[in-house]
Specification:
- By secondary structure, the chain is mainly beta.
- 9% of the residues lie in helices and 45% in strands.
- It has two helices and 16 strands.
- The strands form four sheets. Strands 7, 9, 13, 15 and 16 form a five-stranded antiparallel beta sheet that branches.
- The longest helix is centred in the N-terminal third of the chain and has 12 residues.
- The N and C termini lie far apart (53 Å).
């Protein structure tokens, strides 16, 4: 008669004294192993459609949702996200050009965010202006354009255009559940043309960390 696996996971194993039945042996093994693996689904709705009837979820089952980059565990009555703090970053290693207004720097992070979670955002790079002692703002915004919602107060310096100034902007944001994009912009407050100068030796960086 079939025996249980030695790890106490309730997986049915055939023995040599059982009547040959390869189909049943494979089905028993699949039924034991698959529910204890991390199941991958395109979305929550796809998971609901797949895990029904004889394939209903069981307590302790793990699933990964590809559309929101999320790992869930089944408690016996509901799917609950496994708490893992997330981090993403962006690096630019080339000059973004010049502007007399606001400029998207090319630094951008898009990631799945959770309800109630707070994210720390930090951007840094070398900014320059063609106008000596021009004021330059380095800003972090939620959204995909320069008109997005500003996060934090930004950082600004008066700097000599010929040498540039290394700036860092830090902000905190609680965007809620969903997919959130943040971008980094610079703004020349004076009349000079400003740019974010980056290279392999001194890249501009933008990091988002869940805290």
């Amino acid at each position: 008669m079939p025996t249980s696996d030695p790890f106490g996971q309730g997986i049915s194993l055939i023995s040599l004294t059982d009547a040959p039945d390869m189909s049943k042996a494979i089905a028993d093994l699949a039924a034991g192993v698959i529910p204890r693996s991390i199941l991958r689904f395109a979305s929550a709705s796809a998971r609901t459609a797949a895990l029904a009837g004889d394939a209903a979820p069981v307590k302790g089952m793990l699933s990964y949702l590809m559309d929101v980059d999320r790992l869930d565990v089944y408690t016996g009555s509901a799917w609950v996200e496994v708490s893992t703090k997330r981090e993403a970053s962006s690096v630019v290693m080339a000059s973004t050009g010049q502007t007399s207004g606001q400029l998207l720097t090319g630094l951008s992070v898009t990631m799945a965010t959770r309800a109630g979670a707070t994210y720390r955002l930090e951007a840094s790079g070398l900014v320059r202006s063609t106008l000596a002692n021009d004021r330059i703002d380095l800003l972090i915004r939620r959204g995909t354009t320069v008109s997005g919602t500003q996060v934090g107060g930004g950082v600004h310096f008066s700097n000599a255009g010929a040498t540039g100034e290394s700036l860092t902007a830090v902000g905190w944001d609680t965007p809620g559940a969903g997919t959130t994009t943040w971008v980094v912009t610079i703004s020349g407050v004076g009349s000079g043309l400003v740019d974010l100068t980056a290279s392999a030796a001194f890249p501009a960086t933008f990091t988002v960390k869940e805290i």
